[in-house]
Amino acid sequence: MPRQRRTFTPEFKLQMVKLYENGKSRADIAREYDLTPSGLDKWIKKSSSYWLVRS
């Protein structure tokens, strides 16, 4: 049975990105908050700070 699609607030997404930026691994965040790694990756890449670090 497919998993029902969940929605997350922008505040929650930002909180997850900040956890990653503060050194927590993507795998740990995804496991702890029951997120898909690909969804978390999208949030990280969409965050402005990700692109500032990359440039």
TrEMBL record:
Gene3D superfamilies: Homeodomain-like (1.10.10.60)
Pfam families xrefs: HTH_Tnp_1
Matching SUPFAM superfamilies: Homeodomain-like
Biological processes annotated in GO: DNA transposition
GO molecular function: DNA binding; transposase activity
Name recorded for this polypeptide: Transposase
Species, as recorded: Brochothrix campestris FSL F6-1037
